[in-house]
């Protein structure tokens, strides 16, 4: 049998506000345990939560960037469940009236664009963190409530994703958008971006979905891809053997690369949702939505399209350069000096990106866009060759000096004196009679060898075009 794969993603992104969603406690990461709490986020009797307006603004901006509709009437609900890290025994979330709904984002897979629907985007508070002792003789657990009340948006996709690669690309695209509009730092290591996966299989062409399984504990995009690949294989094997897929929540074991059963999957009615009585409903005006629309920056897909049209570079180049806002700014700073756009993209993608671990930190990179632009101009005006430029670039990485100073200091200026080049060529021809004879008998590789010898003798400083022209002229006599 052949099967269709159906995948939906639930992404939680922490909003980068200074204070929590319903109180003024700090959201700073890494503070001592239970140092950023108050009666409100601890859910003590008699307290009243008050919605942080910045949370509302950032949630709506995220929805607008994801092509969502903004609800003019929205409300909060109580989602009831008991866990040790949830002091109130309920979470303030949104159920039937989310702040944003009916959106989409587009991903590119193998040069083809695919639209992935977004069912809803809603606001909610985070829970705390359980910390378990590693001491085998003292098995105790602690709770850090610092995260309790940290503002989240949950973004729920439509089941439009059909492969692990599409899921991976969806997450990359979503992360890029959220970082572009600066509503979240999307740091998975600090828990600012978390993803749960729902996956099911159905007979190929069938309309009814199969039984879905949720996968949790995914702390990287790579984990999402690997977990999906494993789970699809597991379900396919079970269905081929006429076994029943159970609706459940499974955990991803990154060490063994398998999913493991955790618990049966809760349904919406299990949470006993009801309207949050302490937080008034939210009414949003058209003017407020328009104001936030006007504050949105150029989004990554918009910038990508503009780069293709404005600079005439291939779409692949544009996608790489606009994946992070900082890299896009760096590229535009280079081409704004008059450097050819394609030459700039080639150098940034090949030489520069090979030297940095995180393109988002390129604004602190030792080679400024202005100095890279000068280096590329020295290739164009034949001051140095492309090969020598790489030597200059390595020195720029070590010292931070501008390329002109390095070229002069190291004596790397390209030799264009035809008399000097001709003298070297004469010596090479004289020293390599066999290669000269090979060229004259039609072996093109001999020419490359002879030119290579000239470049070696000139320590790479002879102008390659002049070398090529004079060499052919002499060998043809």
Mean pLDDT: 91
**Percentage beta strand:** 15-25%
Counted by DSSP, the helix tally is 15
- Kindly state the percentage of residues in helix: 25-40%
Q: Which ranges are low-confidence, i.e. pLDDT below 50, for 5 or more consecutive residues?
A: none
Number of strands: 16
Radius of gyration over all CA atoms, rounded: 30 Å
What global shape is seen?
elongated
Indicate the structural class. alpha+beta
Q: Summarize the main sheet.
A: 9 strands, mixed
Number of domains: 3
How are the strands of the biggest sheet laid out side by side? 2-6-7-10-1-11-12-13-14
Distance N to C terminus = 72 Å
Short overview:
The chain is 38% helix and 20% strand. With 477 residues, the protein is of the alpha+beta class. It folds into 3 domains: 3-291, no CATH class; 297-410, no CATH class; 418-475, Orthogonal Bundle (Arc Repressor Mutant, subunit A), CATH 1.10.10.410.
């Amino acid at each position: 049998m052949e099967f269709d794969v159906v995948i939906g993603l639930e992404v939680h992104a922490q909003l980068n506000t200074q204070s929590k969603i319903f109180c003024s406690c700090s959201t700073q990461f890494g503070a001592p345990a239970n140092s950023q709490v108050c009666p409100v986020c601890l859910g003590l009797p008699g307290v009243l939560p008050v919605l942080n307006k910045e949370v509302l603004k950032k949630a709506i901006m995220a929805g607008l960037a994801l092509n969502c509709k903004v609800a003019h009437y929205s409300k909060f609900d109580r989602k009831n469940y008991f866990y040790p890290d949830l002091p109130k025994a309920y979470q303030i979330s949104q159920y039937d009236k989310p702040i944003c709904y009916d959106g989409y984002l587009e991903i590119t897979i193998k040069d083809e664009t695919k639209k992935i629907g977004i069912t809803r985007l809603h606001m909610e508070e985070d829970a705390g963190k359980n910390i378990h002792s590693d001491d085998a003789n003292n098995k105790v657990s602690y709770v850090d409530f610092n995260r309790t009340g940290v503002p989240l948006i949950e973004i729920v996709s439509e089941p439009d994703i059909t492969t692990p690669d599409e899921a991976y690309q969806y997450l990359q695209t979503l992360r890029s958008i959220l970082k572009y509009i600066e509503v979240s730092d999307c740091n998975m290591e600090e828990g600012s971006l978390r993803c749960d996966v729902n996956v099911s299989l159905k007979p190929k062409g069938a309309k009814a979905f199969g039984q879905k399984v949720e996968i949790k504990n995914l702390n990287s995009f790579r984990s999402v891809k690997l977990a999906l690949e494993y789970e699809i294989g597991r379900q396919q094997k079970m269905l081929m053997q006429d076994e029943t897929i159970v609706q459940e929540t499974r955990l991803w074991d990154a060490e063994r690369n398998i999913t493991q059963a955790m618990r049966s999957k809760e349904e919406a009615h299990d949470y006993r949702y009801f309207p949050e009585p302490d937080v008034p409903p939210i009414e949003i005006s058209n003017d407020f939505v328009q104001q936030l629309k006007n504050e949105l920056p150029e989004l990554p897909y918009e910038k990508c399209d503009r780069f293709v049209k404005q600079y005439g570079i291939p779409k692949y180049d544009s996608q790489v350069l606009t994946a992070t806002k900082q890299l896009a700014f760096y590229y535009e700073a280079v081409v704004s000096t008059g450097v050819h756009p394609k030459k700039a993209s080639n150098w940034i993608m090949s030489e520069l990106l090979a030297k940095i671990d995180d393109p988002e930190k390129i604004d602190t990179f030792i080679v400024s866009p202005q100095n890279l632009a000068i280096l590329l101009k020295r290739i164009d005006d034949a001051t140095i060759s492309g090969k020598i430029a790489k030597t200059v670039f390595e020195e720029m990485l070590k010292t931070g000096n501008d390329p002109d100073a390095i070229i002069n200091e190291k004596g790397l200026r390209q030799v264009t004196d035809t008399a000097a080049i001709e003298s070297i060529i004469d010596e090479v021809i004289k020293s390599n009679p066999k290669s000269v004879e090979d060229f004259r008998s039609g072996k093109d590789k001999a020419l490359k060898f002879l030119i290579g010898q000239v470049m070696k003798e000139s320590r790479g400083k002879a102008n390659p075009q002049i070398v090529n022209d004079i060499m052919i002229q002499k060998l043809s006599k």
